[in-house]
Amino acid sequence: MKTRAIVAETHKTTLFLRLTFFFGIFILLLTTALLSQSTRDAYEVKRIDVSGSPEIIARTSSGHIEVYGGNGNTVEIQVYVRKNGDYLSSNNYDISDDYSFSIEQKGNTIEVTAKRLKDGWGSWMSKTPNVSYVIKVPRNSQVDLKTSGGHIDVAMIEGEVKMNTSGGHLTIKEISGVINARTSGGHINLSEIKGSADVRTSGGHIELEGAEGMFDLRTSGGHIDIDKLYGSVKASTSGGNVNASMEVLTGNVELKTSGGSVSLSIPSYEGADLEIKGTRVRANLVNFSGSQTKSAISGTINGGGYKVSLKTSGGTAKLDLRD
User: Fold this and answer.
1) Cβ pair 207, 190 in contact under 8 A
2) What is the DSSP string of 92-157?
3) What SS3 class is residue 184?
4) Cβ 136 vs Cβ 153: under 8 Å
5) Among 207, 222, 289, 313, which residue's CB has the most CB atoms within a 10 Å radius?
6) Which residues are within 8 A (CB) of 157 and not within 5 positions of it... i.e. 6 or more apart?
7) What are the tens digits of pLDDT across the range 199-246?
8) Are the C-beta atoms of 227 and 206 separated by less than 8 Å?
9) What does pTM read for this prediction?
10) Residue 294 has pLDDT above 80, yes or no
11) What is the three-class DSSP state of 245?
C-alpha cells in the first residue's frame, strides 16, 4: 500500500510538472504574439528626411503613441489601425471614413494627426478603429505628443518632450532635456533622465529612478517613489505615500502627502535645513542643531544647506541619514 501511494504521488508530481511546463510555453507564445507588432501590420509607413533638430507633433483621438530616438536624419512614421484586436490595412479599410488623417511636413516640423470625424458616444458604440503611431526620430528631436485614449512611450531623446493623455500611462526613458508630462488617468514612470521634468497625474502613481536634475512631481491619487536621484525635487500627493532616496543634493527637497507617510534617505554628510512634520516623526540625526518633538523637527544638520521639507497630515515622516 505504501508503494502504491508513493507511485500515485509520483504520477501526480509528474503530471503537475508537465502541466506547469506546457502552461509556461502557452504564456510565452501568447506574450510573443502580443509583442509581435511589426511593420507588416502597419496601415501606412512613411519616411521623411530631415536636418538639424526636427520637431515632431503627433495627435490621435484614440490610440497609443511610441517615439524612439536614434541615429540618422530620417523620421519614420508607422501608423497602426486596430479594430476588435485586429490590424486593418489600406486594402480592407479606408481611414478617411472615420478620421481626418494627415502627415504633413513644414520645414523641419512634421505633424501627424488622426482626428475622429464623429466624437461622443456614437463613435464608441460603433467601435471606431483606434489609430496608433510608432515614430522613429533622430535623437536630437523635439516631440509634442497627445492622445485622448491611450498610453505614450518616449525613449532616447535629447531635446524637449511634451506629452499628454486623457486615459493612459506615460513611460519616459533615457531623456536629456525638458519634460512636461500630463495624464488624467494613468501612472507615470521615468528613468534615466537628465534635465528637468514637470509631471502630473490625477489618478495614478509616479516612479522616478536614476535621474539627474530638477523635478516637480504631483499626483492626486497615488504614491510617489523616487530612487537614485541626483538633484532637487518637489513631490506631492493627496492620497498615497512618498518615498525618496537621494544620491546628491543639488537643490531643495520638498515631499508632501495628505493621506500617507513620507520618507527620505540622504547621505549622512549632506548639510541641510530641516522642516519635518507628521503625526509622528523619526530621524537618526547627526550634528543636529534645533528643536525636536514627537511630531516635528526643525533645525539644521552638518551646519545647514539646502532646504529639506517632509510633511504629512496623516502618517509618519521619516528621515534616514545613511553612511
Assistant:
1) yes
2) T--GGGTEEEEEEEETTEEEEEEEESS-SHHHHHTTPPEEEEEEEEETT-EEEEEESSS-EEEEEE
3) coil
4) no
5) 222
6) 67, 69, 137, 139, 141, 143, 174, 175, 176, 177
7) 999 989 999 999 999 999 999 989 999 999 999 999 999 989 999 999
8) no
9) 0.85
10) yes
11) strand
